[in-house]
Amino acid sequence: MKRIRSVFVLVFVAAAVLLSTATAQVTIGILSPLTGGAAGTGQAQKEGFELALKEINAAGGVLGKPLKLIYADTQANPKVAVAAFEKLMTEDNVQFIGGGYSSGVTLALVESFKTFQPLVSWIGGAVSGVGIDNFQGIEELLGNEPWFFHVHPWDYQNTEASTQFIADSGVKTVALLHEDSAFGGPGSQAAQKLLEDAGLNVVLNEAFKSTLFGGTGDFRAAISKAAATKADMLYWIGYDSDVVPMISQIRELNYTPQQIFGAPPGWPSDFAKAPEAQCVTGLIGFMPNLPTPEAMAFTKSFEAMFDKAPDNYMSALAYAQLWSYADSINKAGTTDQAAVIKAMESLTFKSPMGPWKFHDSQITHHQGFGADMWLVFQYQNGVRQIVWPTAKATAPLQSCQASR
Amino acid sequence: MRRALPDVLWTLALAIVAALAPTLLKAGFDQASVSYLSLASNAMSLGILALSWDLLARTGQLSLAHAAFYGAGAYAAAVLANATGVPIVLALPLGGLVAGLLALGLGSVTLRLKGIYFAIATLAFTEVLKAVVQELPTGLAGGAAGLNVPPLFRPHFVPGQMQRWEIAFQRNEAYFYVYAALLVLTIAVSIVVQRTRLRAAFTAVRTNEAVAAVMGVRPARAKLLAFVLSSALVGMLGALEAMRLGSVIPDGTFAISTTVFALVTPIFGGLYTTLGPILGAGVLSAVEETLKRTFAEGYLIGYGVVLVASILFMPRGLVGLATRLRRRRGGSGTPAAGDAEGPA
Amino acid sequence: MDPTLVLQGLVSGVLAAGLYALVSVGLALAIGVIGVINFAHGEFFMIGAFLAYQLFVSFGFDPLLSLIFVAPALFVIGAIVYRSTIRYVLEAPELNQMLLTFGLSIIFQNLALLIWGGDPRSISGVPYRSIGVQLGGISIGLVPLGSFVISLVLVLALYVGLARTRLGRAMRAVAQNRVGASLVGLEVDRIYLVAFALSALLAGIGGVMIAVIQSPTPTVGFAFTLKAFAIVVLAGLGNIRGILWASLAVAVSESMVATLVPNGDALRNAVFFAIIFIVLVGRAWRRA
Prior knowledge:
The complex is a heterotrimer of chains A (404), B (344) and C (288). By secondary structure, chain A is an alpha/beta fold. Helices cover 41% and strands 16% of the residues of chain A. Chain A folds into two domains: 20-153 and 292-372, 3-Layer(aba) Sandwich (Rossmann fold); 156-289 and 374-392, Response regulator (Rossmann fold, 3-Layer(aba) Sandwich), CATH 3.40.50. Chain A is globular and about 65 Å long. Chain B is globular and about 70 Å long. Chain B starts with a helix and ends in a 16-residue tail after the last helix. At the A-C interface, helix 2, strand 7, helix 8 and helix 9 of A face helix 1, helix 5, helix 9 and helix 10 of C.
């Protein structure tokens, strides 16, 4: 009896071993904030990943097997993120890390990343540290690591795009309002410098408290000060949840600059139909109506899968990130890190934003999207038209004073 | 000092378990021990947070300023760790010192506030301190961007002789011991409070200040002592976590959630006891991690349900439940270590 | 400094007091009558905000019209929450109530995350939002003015209701002396139920207003709740009319600092909580 049982066990173990080698599939660990205050971003990333995963596996998977994703929720909390990353490394034994958001989380992960040195492709955490004294940002801390790839543009690239648009828009004077946390504080200093270098006159640089960090959304004092300057443009740096109070209060206080331009990470999806949105411009990473074949295909499949438009550009970035992994590993023909890194460095990938490849930025050689990813849209009669850069525009930029 | 011996034995036993835990985890789980150590450190962090808050609560002061002292300790450590020529280890006591002094100041002015008035005043203090720290010169406190904080431990990787996960293990093991030491210190302070005349003093101040005064207790001194002890401990925790997490930033380091968990955990585990907050931290951490690993989305709903159910069915927390069960079984009849006397 | 700017700051501050009073009045009822410290009050705002959003998306209802549905819905939700949980911790220490309501707030927030997701939404058709009446260079926003009037009406109605109606007198009796109230034949549990449900209803109205001026998100209620707690305490527990004065004091101070100090708008929370802190501490020392 005992012998029979041990034979069974042996057969079972052998079968398990065989089965596991037969189905050995490439696994990518995803670190995203799926709950908590940044859950909107994490969910958007997850939707991009799910769509890419479906397409990748339909196209034959990775190294001939279906690709597998393991999500690990960071809650946008540094402590949780470190344990979640370690679990991916030591319990799930993943070799590849994707996802990525929040600079605080990324800073906490630096030591752990450097310890395990998996291949990390990281979407966000845009705080490069470049240009801020006494502070080491993510590009400064990780930019020289051969295994670190960064997908989202850095803060200075965001500012570069904004500045370029403002200069192109024809305004002369700019009133700058910024939220006062780690995003808008250093961001506004960099923006002011670049704008002045471009010959523009920054007549005001004033802080406000974002609704994301305990503010109750009253920006009237800052807007009143901006209105008093009569600047041609109101340029504001804040978060998604600041859009509605900011724009409606600009209207309420009867401030009518030529341009109202904002650079939050995202925009409320149904704001386009709001009357106060008319003529407001915004910086954005991806637009569902971008008139390129890649964008149209992505938007169509996304809508088919989730029954809504890919309004949050984090979905498009996540989609691009996962495809870059799949293509690189398939090209390398192995999961060997050095080979995959080489493939990632040399390949051009498809993405909803068009073809892209990892290239040089200020420090790293592995920067995914640059300033040229950014688009500027303008709400025009209930539709978000792309107005900048001109090559991708779907409509010309209008002045707010003309449209009144 | 009645029954001091069992306390010392328990604490000693805990210290021994903590001392052996990393080795045992490594033997049992191999590389998976790395993340288990982090989770254990996170749980101990919650335990220190909870027990230090409970110390203050024993005097009836319902503080919503725990995040302020955590943050003050973290920032003090960050500033020191960035200064050249100072041993970084000093950041821990400095964090405790700064937080303790701050508590002495806050405690002195809020002495006469009670109940929710005290709670809201301490909450307001947290918000004001956060704003002040953010407005400090950027050369000192980094302003909105915050400060990098160098790590307390950075083990060296020797290629060929060890695997990568073993460095992570070494680092996590080192942090684990510091957390354990801080936890043991917090427990020791709590036990001293529970086993000396301080306990009667704290309880009297909580239940009835007039009676306390008649008993010869000076309420102001008892309250201030509790405030300083509680805050110094959580200040050291803040300092430790700043070094482990690599940065401080006003909105994250002074997050109200720190305060909320500091008060939720002892209630869940059992207020005014040594065991309760520790047990509460362990169980809540385990529940959250288990739910997280079982359900990908919406797992926090289950966490909320556990909290709601716990208070409905265990109004005196885990420790109260244990005592109730033991009494029902007709056990020894003596209350559990640390005693589960209900809040007045 | 430009005098128009200062005057605008003053006007904005006075009007902003309306929103503060609006979000505080329901909490004042919960704390004042039932003595329950409800950490989940902000989730009633959030639910109210999302319901207004959903009614707009599904049926095109204007938020003002939504009030007719949202307010009773929140009353029912409040009643259910009371019957299923709150009533069991009334006798318990306030800390137990905090743990319970914190658990409830986690449940509601994460349910909302599952239902509506974490991305900010917006009600896209509010004809009166973004409109300011211009008077000699000063702008008076219709929405702030509206919430000012609504909060004034609600606070006075609640004040009169508590003083004059039978239910109101019963509530006050229960608030003052629970045992005594039950001795004279008042159904304490029913009265608490109504008071708690009313508090949720008032939060629902605040939530609809929040949905007008901001984007509904699962965590939208938090900042308002924090400030509402402070205002209720500043007014003094059980002092319903005091809500108006407390709101006015903090809102005007906030707005004036925001206007007069460079980068002042970022200091709003600091000013708000500094006032709360100084007043509470000052009051305690003066009384002694």
